[in-house]
Amino acid sequence: LTPEMLPMVSTACLAKGSATMGQKQTVVKNINAMQGFGSMDVLCVDKTGTLTGDYTTLEYYMDILGNESEQVLHLAYLNSYYHSGIKNHLDEAIKQISTSLRQTNVYEELITRFPKLDERPFDYERQCVSVLVESTQGPLVIMKGNVDVIVPRCTQVAYRGERREMTKEDAKSVHLIVDEMLEDGMKVIAVAYRHTTHRILHDEDEHELILLGYLAFFDAPKNSADAAIAHLKRLHVEVKVLTGDQQDVAISICRRLNLKTQEVMTGNDFESLSDDEKRLCLERVQVFVELSPKHKVDIVRLLQKNGHTVGYLGDGMNDLPAIVESDVGISVDTAVEAVKECADVILLKKDLQVLEQGILEGRRAFYNMSKYIRITASSNFGNILSIVIAGIFLPFFPMTSIQLLLLNLLYDCVCLALPWDHVDEASVAYPLEWSGRTLGRLMCSFGPISSLFDMLTFACLYFVFCPMICGGSLTSLDAGGQLQFISLFQTGWFLESMWTQILILHLLRTEQIPMIQNRPSSVVMLVTTLGIGLFTIMTWTPLGRWLGLTAMPLGYFVYLVLVVTAYLLLMILAKRRYLKRYAHLM
To answer: Can 333 be counted among the known catalytic residues?
Structure first.
């Protein structure tokens, strides 16, 4: 009953799927990830670079009242230039400004005038980065980061060279200016500074700051993202957005892509829920914002606990823990090295449409593997049942062990063509998963039909063909005649079993009517035809005689064609009844 060739057939299916994906701008580092592609029903994605373009542009640099301010840009440039921590799109956009404004000399002079003394790199808990530089007035702290993090640290504001204490009205004006840009889908960060006497950054240097202004960035949604999300939805893969960006920014982008934003969960709100509430929340909320790397990992783990197969697409260090935790870790060729090293799949093009092709190919590989299991289990169950019944009533073995092994080897070799078989579109419309729940049902539905025709063949061979050829019944023959009788019987069942096993592969490989509604691939057709032809001819050869097989009369082949035709017709009816009751073969 064991499908012995399962490891080889599975590997062949996965390798075939991986090779096909290689032609579609996708590198599959771990071929087992193809199974994950096939069963994935939730895809978690970061916003930047996936739903939006890879390049973030700096749109505005402004003072506290929203007027353009070169001082804000200059201090932000120094902060980004000296920042040596995790690279991000915002720093790159700021550093590109010297080229876009054609003021390379101005920024080179800034670097010379303000040499670096110390820094505190960005991290996802603090949501800010501080740089200490030398200035003519002594050490200068330049800090930039999340508006809600920077503004509470400020006690003063600067406007057109003047400084004054920050008032409640100033705090309100911050939100009046910033919130409008956030609603337009821009990411806004604040820039602040202060002078200090320290030459190494201390905690106190990051407080009592002077708010200077803001930077506003924009990364437009990809033209292909909306269509790709719609395609994934048709494939019954839910896309969940997991981003560290501010809520208003994420909502603005997601609305343009027709994602559900009626209920959006922040990282802090999510963390405050109980485990049961989190698991319920994950089933209804599609967009999660202001997340730390830990939040992303927790979301992936809880989705898995809910029974989902989770894929994660990301390219930054903040995505690394979630990529490792997910069932299918997906990254891009431009990602940081550590992320590419841990990912199972690397997209040469950061586009959800490429991912859609990967999901379909994974499902095809998965489905072709399942074909082998369900067909082999059903067929083997019928053969074993026939052997048990024959062992009770016959005074000899219906097939020798070497003949049985040869038949099994032949069938398994034919099944090696399954990775190249066609798959019904309806069969890959839903995520697929390994499950033994339907296997016993399949075996009991189709295996006994095979045994029924085996019994008919046993009766015809024992009472008709063998006595007719040998000149009498088994008990009336001498020792030589009995050996011929047994050899004819074993050859007859070997041929009938081989024909039915190989032809049933065509019937159960698809839920449609084979050859009419669904044609097998040319590889499967060629291999099955050659298998039947060569092993039938083998019974006339010296190799066949060495294996205990013998040539059968022409009349037996007429019977064989009739009985196999009747078997296939009955199996078609049984399959139709099975599908009417259970809808799918898997």
So the answer is: no
